Amino acid sequence: MKYINYTDCSNTELKAMLFDRTPDNYDKYDDIVTDIINDVKKNGNEAIYRYCKKFDNVTLNEESLKVSKEEIEEAYDQIDEELVGIIRKAKKRIKVYHEKQKKYSWFDSCDLGTIMGQKVTPIEKVGVYVPGGKAVYPSSVIMNVMPAKVVGVNQIVMVTPPDKSGKVNPVTLVAANECGVSEIYKVGGAQAIAALAFGTETIPKVYKIVGPGNIFVALAKKAVYGYVSIDSIAGPSEVLVIADEDANPKYVAADLLSQAEHDELASAILVTNSEKLGQEVKEEIARQTDYLSRKEILQKSLNDFGVIVVVKSIDEAIRLSNEIAPEHLEICTKEPFMILPKINNAGAIFLGNYSPEPLGDYMAGPNHVLPTNGTAKFFSPLSVDDFIKKSSIISFSREALEDLQEDIIKFANAEKLTAHANSIKVRFEND
Protein backbone atom coordinates (compact mmCIF):
# COMPACT_ATOMS: atom_id res chain seq x y z
CA MET A 1 0.00 0.00 0.00
CA LYS A 2 1.43 3.38 -1.01
CA TYR A 3 2.19 5.92 1.71
CA ILE A 4 2.62 9.55 0.64
CA ASN A 5 2.72 13.05 2.07
CA TYR A 6 0.27 15.17 0.12
CA THR A 7 1.52 17.67 -2.47
CA ASP A 8 0.28 18.87 -5.84
CA CYS A 9 2.40 16.16 -7.44
CA SER A 10 0.77 13.47 -5.34
CA ASN A 11 -2.63 14.87 -6.36
CA THR A 12 -1.72 14.24 -10.00
CA GLU A 13 -0.50 10.77 -9.08
CA LEU A 14 -3.79 9.96 -7.33
CA LYS A 15 -5.85 11.07 -10.32
CA ALA A 16 -3.73 8.97 -12.68
CA MET A 17 -4.12 5.95 -10.41
CA LEU A 18 -7.91 6.30 -10.31
CA PHE A 19 -8.18 6.91 -14.07
CA ASP A 20 -6.54 3.54 -14.72
CA ARG A 21 -9.62 1.93 -13.17
CA THR A 22 -12.32 3.76 -15.15
CA PRO A 23 -14.43 1.89 -17.75
CA ASP A 24 -13.65 4.74 -20.17
CA ASN A 25 -10.10 3.37 -20.23
CA TYR A 26 -11.13 -0.05 -21.59
CA ASP A 27 -11.31 0.75 -25.31
CA LYS A 28 -9.56 -2.49 -26.23
CA TYR A 29 -12.71 -4.43 -25.29
CA ASP A 30 -15.14 -2.33 -27.34
CA ASP A 31 -14.99 -4.44 -30.51
CA ILE A 32 -15.58 -7.68 -28.59
CA VAL A 33 -18.63 -6.22 -26.85
CA THR A 34 -20.02 -4.75 -30.08
CA ASP A 35 -19.73 -8.11 -31.84
CA ILE A 36 -21.55 -9.89 -29.01
CA ILE A 37 -24.37 -7.34 -28.97
CA ASN A 38 -24.87 -7.51 -32.74
CA ASP A 39 -24.83 -11.31 -32.64
CA VAL A 40 -27.51 -11.49 -29.94
CA LYS A 41 -29.57 -8.81 -31.68
CA LYS A 42 -29.50 -10.85 -34.91
CA ASN A 43 -29.58 -14.44 -33.65
CA GLY A 44 -31.41 -14.25 -30.32
CA ASN A 45 -31.49 -17.40 -28.22
CA GLU A 46 -29.07 -19.26 -30.49
CA ALA A 47 -26.38 -16.67 -29.77
CA ILE A 48 -27.16 -16.76 -26.05
CA TYR A 49 -26.67 -20.55 -25.95
CA ARG A 50 -23.33 -20.25 -27.77
CA TYR A 51 -21.99 -17.62 -25.36
CA CYS A 52 -23.19 -19.57 -22.31
CA LYS A 53 -21.21 -22.54 -23.61
CA LYS A 54 -18.17 -20.42 -24.47
CA PHE A 55 -17.94 -18.25 -21.35
CA ASP A 56 -19.73 -20.25 -18.63
CA ASN A 57 -19.08 -23.77 -19.95
CA VAL A 58 -22.75 -24.67 -19.59
CA THR A 59 -25.21 -26.02 -22.16
CA LEU A 60 -28.64 -24.40 -22.05
CA ASN A 61 -31.79 -24.62 -24.15
CA GLU A 62 -35.21 -22.96 -24.25
CA GLU A 63 -36.43 -25.00 -21.27
CA SER A 64 -33.39 -24.53 -19.02
CA LEU A 65 -32.60 -20.88 -19.83
CA LYS A 66 -35.30 -19.62 -17.50
CA VAL A 67 -35.16 -20.43 -13.78
CA SER A 68 -38.11 -22.67 -12.90
CA LYS A 69 -40.38 -22.56 -9.85
CA GLU A 70 -38.91 -25.91 -8.83
CA GLU A 71 -35.39 -24.44 -8.84
CA ILE A 72 -36.54 -21.59 -6.61
CA GLU A 73 -38.20 -24.01 -4.18
CA GLU A 74 -35.02 -26.11 -4.17
CA ALA A 75 -32.99 -22.99 -3.35
CA TYR A 76 -34.93 -22.49 -0.10
CA ASP A 77 -34.00 -26.03 0.93
CA GLN A 78 -30.31 -25.31 0.32
CA ILE A 79 -29.87 -22.31 2.62
CA ASP A 80 -30.57 -22.06 6.33
CA GLU A 81 -33.69 -20.35 7.67
CA GLU A 82 -31.65 -17.80 9.61
CA LEU A 83 -30.18 -16.43 6.37
CA VAL A 84 -33.66 -16.24 4.83
CA GLY A 85 -34.71 -14.21 7.88
CA ILE A 86 -31.76 -11.85 7.44
CA ILE A 87 -32.62 -11.34 3.76
CA ARG A 88 -36.19 -10.47 4.76
CA LYS A 89 -34.97 -8.05 7.43
CA ALA A 90 -32.63 -6.31 4.97
CA LYS A 91 -35.42 -6.13 2.39
CA LYS A 92 -37.74 -4.49 4.90
CA ARG A 93 -35.18 -1.87 5.97
CA ILE A 94 -34.30 -1.05 2.36
CA LYS A 95 -37.99 -0.86 1.40
CA VAL A 96 -38.79 1.55 4.25
CA TYR A 97 -35.90 3.86 3.29
CA HIS A 98 -36.89 3.97 -0.38
CA GLU A 99 -40.57 4.56 0.40
CA LYS A 100 -39.50 7.92 1.84
CA GLN A 101 -38.10 8.85 -1.60
CA LYS A 102 -41.37 8.36 -3.50
CA LYS A 103 -42.54 11.10 -5.84
CA TYR A 104 -46.19 11.81 -6.52
CA SER A 105 -48.15 13.36 -9.35
CA TRP A 106 -49.25 16.94 -8.73
CA PHE A 107 -51.61 19.46 -10.31
CA ASP A 108 -51.95 23.24 -9.97
CA SER A 109 -54.75 25.48 -11.27
CA CYS A 110 -55.63 29.17 -11.44
CA ASP A 111 -58.79 31.27 -11.85
CA LEU A 112 -58.42 31.71 -15.62
CA GLY A 113 -58.83 27.98 -16.14
CA THR A 114 -55.32 26.59 -16.39
CA ILE A 115 -54.27 23.22 -15.07
CA MET A 116 -50.59 22.41 -15.01
CA GLY A 117 -48.85 19.56 -13.31
CA GLN A 118 -46.71 16.47 -13.47
CA LYS A 119 -47.77 12.85 -13.86
CA VAL A 120 -45.43 10.28 -12.30
CA THR A 121 -45.54 6.83 -13.90
CA PRO A 122 -43.45 3.72 -13.14
CA ILE A 123 -41.31 2.33 -15.97
CA GLU A 124 -43.21 -0.75 -17.15
CA LYS A 125 -40.34 -3.22 -17.70
CA VAL A 126 -36.95 -3.19 -15.99
CA GLY A 127 -33.98 -5.54 -16.36
CA VAL A 128 -31.70 -6.23 -13.39
CA TYR A 129 -28.18 -7.60 -13.88
CA VAL A 130 -26.81 -9.52 -10.91
CA PRO A 131 -23.11 -10.53 -11.04
CA GLY A 132 -21.87 -14.05 -10.42
CA GLY A 133 -18.27 -15.13 -10.76
CA LYS A 134 -15.95 -14.22 -7.89
CA ALA A 135 -18.65 -13.68 -5.26
CA VAL A 136 -22.36 -14.06 -4.59
CA TYR A 137 -24.35 -10.84 -4.29
CA PRO A 138 -27.88 -11.29 -2.87
CA SER A 139 -27.51 -7.77 -1.48
CA SER A 140 -27.22 -6.50 -5.06
CA VAL A 141 -30.54 -8.17 -5.85
CA ILE A 142 -32.31 -6.39 -2.99
CA MET A 143 -30.75 -2.99 -3.69
CA ASN A 144 -31.62 -3.04 -7.40
CA VAL A 145 -35.08 -4.57 -7.12
CA MET A 146 -36.67 -2.88 -4.08
CA PRO A 147 -36.72 0.71 -5.42
CA ALA A 148 -38.45 -0.64 -8.54
CA LYS A 149 -40.99 -2.55 -6.45
CA VAL A 150 -41.65 0.48 -4.24
CA VAL A 151 -42.75 2.60 -7.22
CA GLY A 152 -44.74 -0.21 -8.82
CA VAL A 153 -42.69 -1.44 -11.79
CA ASN A 154 -44.86 -4.10 -13.40
CA GLN A 155 -42.22 -6.50 -14.80
CA ILE A 156 -38.75 -7.04 -13.35
CA VAL A 157 -36.54 -9.36 -15.39
CA MET A 158 -33.33 -10.59 -13.76
CA VAL A 159 -30.30 -12.03 -15.53
CA THR A 160 -27.36 -13.66 -13.79
CA PRO A 161 -24.63 -16.08 -14.92
CA PRO A 162 -25.06 -19.76 -13.95
CA ASP A 163 -22.41 -22.08 -12.58
CA LYS A 164 -20.96 -24.95 -14.65
CA SER A 165 -23.87 -27.19 -13.69
CA GLY A 166 -26.34 -24.66 -15.08
CA LYS A 167 -27.59 -23.55 -11.68
CA VAL A 168 -27.94 -20.09 -10.16
CA ASN A 169 -26.63 -19.63 -6.63
CA PRO A 170 -29.48 -20.50 -4.22
CA VAL A 171 -28.97 -17.40 -2.05
CA THR A 172 -29.34 -15.19 -5.13
CA LEU A 173 -32.54 -17.04 -6.11
CA VAL A 174 -34.04 -16.70 -2.64
CA ALA A 175 -33.27 -12.97 -2.53
CA ALA A 176 -34.86 -12.50 -5.96
CA ASN A 177 -37.97 -14.42 -5.00
CA GLU A 178 -38.34 -12.55 -1.70
CA CYS A 179 -38.13 -9.23 -3.55
CA GLY A 180 -40.73 -10.20 -6.14
CA VAL A 181 -38.66 -10.56 -9.30
CA SER A 182 -40.95 -11.55 -12.18
CA GLU A 183 -38.60 -13.90 -14.04
CA ILE A 184 -34.95 -14.97 -13.91
CA TYR A 185 -32.68 -16.05 -16.76
CA LYS A 186 -29.33 -17.87 -16.57
CA VAL A 187 -27.16 -15.63 -18.66
CA GLY A 188 -24.41 -13.13 -17.84
CA GLY A 189 -21.93 -10.83 -19.51
CA ALA A 190 -22.46 -8.55 -22.50
CA GLN A 191 -24.81 -11.14 -24.02
CA ALA A 192 -27.22 -10.73 -21.10
CA ILE A 193 -27.30 -6.96 -21.54
CA ALA A 194 -27.93 -7.37 -25.27
CA ALA A 195 -30.78 -9.79 -24.58
CA LEU A 196 -32.46 -7.33 -22.22
CA ALA A 197 -31.95 -4.42 -24.61
CA PHE A 198 -33.29 -6.09 -27.76
CA GLY A 199 -35.14 -9.19 -26.56
CA THR A 200 -34.84 -12.78 -27.78
CA GLU A 201 -37.37 -15.55 -28.40
CA THR A 202 -37.38 -16.19 -24.63
CA ILE A 203 -35.97 -13.15 -22.84
CA PRO A 204 -38.23 -10.08 -23.02
CA LYS A 205 -36.99 -6.65 -24.07
CA VAL A 206 -37.04 -4.15 -21.20
CA TYR A 207 -37.05 -0.35 -21.08
CA LYS A 208 -34.28 0.13 -18.53
CA ILE A 209 -31.30 -1.93 -17.31
CA VAL A 210 -29.76 -1.58 -13.87
CA GLY A 211 -27.15 -3.45 -11.88
CA PRO A 212 -23.35 -3.73 -11.64
CA GLY A 213 -21.09 -6.07 -13.56
CA ASN A 214 -17.62 -6.63 -14.96
CA ILE A 215 -15.88 -4.67 -17.72
CA PHE A 216 -17.91 -6.37 -20.46
CA VAL A 217 -21.20 -5.66 -18.71
CA ALA A 218 -20.28 -2.01 -18.17
CA LEU A 219 -19.30 -1.53 -21.81
CA ALA A 220 -22.39 -3.37 -23.04
CA LYS A 221 -24.64 -1.08 -20.99
CA LYS A 222 -22.83 1.89 -22.47
CA ALA A 223 -23.33 0.50 -25.99
CA VAL A 224 -27.09 -0.14 -25.66
CA TYR A 225 -27.84 3.18 -24.00
CA GLY A 226 -30.33 4.97 -26.22
CA TYR A 227 -32.10 1.75 -27.19
CA VAL A 228 -32.89 1.44 -23.50
CA SER A 229 -32.15 3.53 -20.44
CA ILE A 230 -29.46 2.45 -17.96
CA ASP A 231 -28.62 3.40 -14.39
CA SER A 232 -24.93 4.25 -14.91
CA ILE A 233 -21.61 2.89 -16.17
CA ALA A 234 -20.32 1.50 -12.91
CA GLY A 235 -16.58 1.23 -12.32
CA PRO A 236 -14.74 -0.75 -9.65
CA SER A 237 -15.63 -0.10 -6.03
CA GLU A 238 -13.83 2.47 -3.87
CA VAL A 239 -13.72 3.91 -0.36
CA LEU A 240 -12.06 7.03 1.00
CA VAL A 241 -11.67 7.49 4.75
CA ILE A 242 -11.07 10.90 6.32
CA ALA A 243 -9.59 10.32 9.76
CA ASP A 244 -7.86 12.28 12.51
CA GLU A 245 -5.87 11.28 15.59
CA ASP A 246 -9.08 10.22 17.39
CA ALA A 247 -9.83 7.48 14.87
CA ASN A 248 -9.34 3.82 15.77
CA PRO A 249 -6.63 2.40 13.45
CA LYS A 250 -8.04 -1.11 13.76
CA TYR A 251 -11.47 0.05 12.54
CA VAL A 252 -10.05 2.17 9.73
CA ALA A 253 -7.85 -0.67 8.45
CA ALA A 254 -10.77 -3.10 8.53
CA ASP A 255 -12.96 -0.71 6.53
CA LEU A 256 -10.28 -0.13 3.89
CA LEU A 257 -9.87 -3.90 3.55
CA SER A 258 -13.64 -4.39 3.22
CA GLN A 259 -13.55 -2.48 -0.06
CA ALA A 260 -10.24 -3.81 -1.31
CA GLU A 261 -11.56 -7.39 -1.22
CA HIS A 262 -14.20 -6.67 -3.90
CA ASP A 263 -11.72 -7.14 -6.75
CA GLU A 264 -8.21 -6.33 -7.91
CA LEU A 265 -9.32 -2.93 -9.27
CA ALA A 266 -10.98 -1.75 -6.05
CA SER A 267 -9.47 1.35 -4.46
CA ALA A 268 -9.00 2.03 -0.73
CA ILE A 269 -7.73 5.47 0.31
CA LEU A 270 -7.03 6.89 3.76
CA VAL A 271 -6.59 10.64 4.07
CA THR A 272 -5.41 11.74 7.51
CA ASN A 273 -3.70 14.65 9.22
CA SER A 274 -2.05 12.26 11.67
CA GLU A 275 1.27 10.64 10.71
CA LYS A 276 0.90 8.37 13.73
CA LEU A 277 -2.53 7.13 12.67
CA GLY A 278 -1.30 6.54 9.12
CA GLN A 279 1.52 4.29 10.32
CA GLU A 280 -0.77 2.41 12.71
CA VAL A 281 -3.34 1.80 9.97
CA LYS A 282 -0.62 0.50 7.65
CA GLU A 283 0.50 -1.98 10.32
CA GLU A 284 -3.09 -3.04 11.01
CA ILE A 285 -3.73 -3.64 7.32
CA ALA A 286 -0.76 -6.02 7.15
CA ARG A 287 -1.90 -7.82 10.30
CA GLN A 288 -5.55 -8.20 9.28
CA THR A 289 -4.83 -9.13 5.66
CA ASP A 290 -2.94 -12.16 6.89
CA TYR A 291 -6.05 -13.89 8.25
CA LEU A 292 -8.65 -12.84 5.64
CA SER A 293 -9.88 -15.30 3.00
CA ARG A 294 -9.42 -13.16 -0.14
CA LYS A 295 -5.78 -12.44 0.63
CA GLU A 296 -4.50 -12.47 -2.97
CA ILE A 297 -7.19 -10.04 -4.17
CA LEU A 298 -6.54 -7.79 -1.17
CA GLN A 299 -2.82 -7.64 -1.79
CA LYS A 300 -3.24 -6.92 -5.51
CA SER A 301 -5.85 -4.22 -4.90
CA LEU A 302 -3.87 -2.51 -2.13
CA ASN A 303 -0.59 -2.65 -4.05
CA ASP A 304 -2.10 -1.08 -7.16
CA PHE A 305 -4.86 1.19 -5.88
CA GLY A 306 -4.44 1.49 -2.12
CA VAL A 307 -2.88 4.60 -0.60
CA ILE A 308 -2.46 6.37 2.72
CA VAL A 309 -2.25 10.13 2.21
CA VAL A 310 -0.96 12.34 5.02
CA VAL A 311 -2.22 15.93 4.76
CA LYS A 312 -1.55 19.07 6.81
CA SER A 313 -5.12 19.55 8.00
CA ILE A 314 -8.60 18.06 7.92
CA ASP A 315 -9.68 20.95 5.69
CA GLU A 316 -7.10 19.79 3.16
CA ALA A 317 -8.46 16.25 3.51
CA ILE A 318 -11.95 17.56 2.74
CA ARG A 319 -10.76 19.40 -0.36
CA LEU A 320 -8.99 16.28 -1.62
CA SER A 321 -12.06 14.13 -0.94
CA ASN A 322 -14.35 16.52 -2.82
CA GLU A 323 -11.97 16.42 -5.77
CA ILE A 324 -11.85 12.61 -5.83
CA ALA A 325 -15.65 12.36 -5.23
CA PRO A 326 -15.50 8.84 -3.77
CA GLU A 327 -18.21 6.22 -4.06
CA HIS A 328 -18.04 5.60 -0.30
CA LEU A 329 -16.79 8.23 2.14
CA GLU A 330 -16.18 7.45 5.79
CA ILE A 331 -15.59 10.33 8.20
CA CYS A 332 -13.81 8.99 11.27
CA THR A 333 -13.02 12.15 13.20
CA LYS A 334 -13.80 13.53 16.64
CA GLU A 335 -16.70 15.65 15.26
CA PRO A 336 -17.85 14.00 11.98
CA PHE A 337 -21.09 16.00 11.78
CA MET A 338 -19.07 19.22 11.76
CA ILE A 339 -17.42 18.03 8.54
CA LEU A 340 -20.62 16.86 6.82
CA PRO A 341 -21.73 20.33 5.54
CA LYS A 342 -18.36 20.72 3.77
CA ILE A 343 -18.76 17.49 1.78
CA ASN A 344 -20.02 18.24 -1.73
CA ASN A 345 -19.14 15.10 -3.70
CA ALA A 346 -19.69 11.57 -2.38
CA GLY A 347 -21.96 8.66 -3.21
CA ALA A 348 -22.67 7.64 0.38
CA ILE A 349 -21.34 9.27 3.56
CA PHE A 350 -20.71 7.23 6.72
CA LEU A 351 -20.32 9.22 9.92
CA GLY A 352 -18.47 8.03 13.03
CA ASN A 353 -16.64 4.95 14.23
CA TYR A 354 -19.74 2.75 14.26
CA SER A 355 -20.99 3.44 10.75
CA PRO A 356 -18.67 1.21 8.68
CA GLU A 357 -19.20 0.95 4.92
CA PRO A 358 -20.37 -2.72 5.01
CA LEU A 359 -23.34 -1.53 7.08
CA GLY A 360 -24.47 0.35 3.98
CA ASP A 361 -23.80 -2.66 1.75
CA TYR A 362 -26.31 -4.82 3.57
CA MET A 363 -28.60 -3.55 6.27
CA ALA A 364 -28.71 0.22 6.85
CA GLY A 365 -31.39 1.00 4.25
CA PRO A 366 -29.89 3.49 1.75
CA ASN A 367 -28.99 2.04 -1.62
CA HIS A 368 -25.50 0.62 -2.12
CA VAL A 369 -25.56 1.17 -5.90
CA LEU A 370 -23.48 4.35 -5.99
CA PRO A 371 -21.61 6.59 -8.45
CA THR A 372 -17.98 5.57 -8.96
CA ASN A 373 -14.83 7.00 -10.54
CA GLY A 374 -15.55 10.61 -9.59
CA THR A 375 -19.07 10.62 -11.02
CA ALA A 376 -20.47 11.52 -7.59
CA LYS A 377 -19.82 15.08 -8.77
CA PHE A 378 -22.94 14.77 -10.94
CA PHE A 379 -24.62 11.40 -10.26
CA SER A 380 -26.64 10.16 -7.28
CA PRO A 381 -27.18 6.73 -5.68
CA LEU A 382 -29.75 4.42 -7.24
CA SER A 383 -33.20 5.44 -5.99
CA VAL A 384 -36.89 5.31 -6.79
CA ASP A 385 -36.26 8.18 -9.25
CA ASP A 386 -34.46 5.69 -11.51
CA PHE A 387 -37.64 3.68 -11.99
CA ILE A 388 -40.17 6.40 -12.82
CA LYS A 389 -40.97 8.69 -15.74
CA LYS A 390 -42.45 12.15 -15.44
CA SER A 391 -44.95 13.60 -17.89
CA SER A 392 -45.85 17.29 -17.94
CA ILE A 393 -49.58 18.13 -17.75
CA ILE A 394 -50.95 21.24 -19.50
CA SER A 395 -54.60 22.25 -19.85
CA PHE A 396 -55.71 25.81 -20.75
CA SER A 397 -59.16 27.28 -21.15
CA ARG A 398 -59.89 29.60 -24.10
CA GLU A 399 -59.71 32.57 -21.76
CA ALA A 400 -56.32 31.55 -20.38
CA LEU A 401 -54.84 30.98 -23.83
CA GLU A 402 -56.22 34.32 -25.05
CA ASP A 403 -54.41 36.06 -22.21
CA LEU A 404 -51.06 34.77 -23.57
CA GLN A 405 -51.77 34.68 -27.33
CA GLU A 406 -49.89 37.83 -28.33
CA ASP A 407 -46.82 36.84 -26.28
CA ILE A 408 -46.71 33.40 -27.86
CA ILE A 409 -47.16 34.75 -31.40
CA LYS A 410 -44.35 37.28 -30.96
CA PHE A 411 -42.09 34.63 -29.46
CA ALA A 412 -42.75 32.25 -32.37
CA ASN A 413 -42.21 34.97 -34.98
CA ALA A 414 -38.92 35.93 -33.32
CA GLU A 415 -37.79 32.34 -33.93
CA LYS A 416 -39.24 32.47 -37.49
CA LEU A 417 -41.58 29.59 -36.69
CA THR A 418 -44.69 30.87 -38.41
CA ALA A 419 -46.60 27.59 -38.07
CA HIS A 420 -46.21 27.89 -34.30
CA ALA A 421 -47.67 31.38 -34.42
CA ASN A 422 -50.46 30.21 -36.75
CA SER A 423 -51.46 27.48 -34.30
CA ILE A 424 -52.37 30.22 -31.84
CA LYS A 425 -53.87 32.66 -34.36
CA VAL A 426 -56.41 30.24 -35.86
CA ARG A 427 -58.07 29.82 -32.47
CA PHE A 428 -59.01 33.50 -32.32
CA GLU A 429 -59.66 34.37 -36.02
CA ASN A 430 -63.42 34.78 -35.55
CA ASP A 431 -63.10 37.34 -32.73
UniProtKB/TrEMBL annotation:
The biological process GO terms on file are: L-histidine biosynthetic process
Q: What is this protein called?
A: Histidinol dehydrogenase
Give the top-rank taxon of the lineage listed in the UniProt record for this protein.
Bacteria
Annotated function: Catalyzes the sequential NAD-dependent oxidations of L-histidinol to L-histidinaldehyde and then to L-histidine.
Positions annotated to bind NAD(+): Y129, Q191, N214
Cofactor dependence? Zn(2+)
Q: What is the lineage of its organism?
A: Bacteria, Bacillati, Bacillota, Clostridia, Lachnospirales
Q: Which InterPro entries match?
A: Ald_DH/histidinol_DH, Histidinol_DH_CS, Histidinol_DH_monofunct, Hstdl_DH
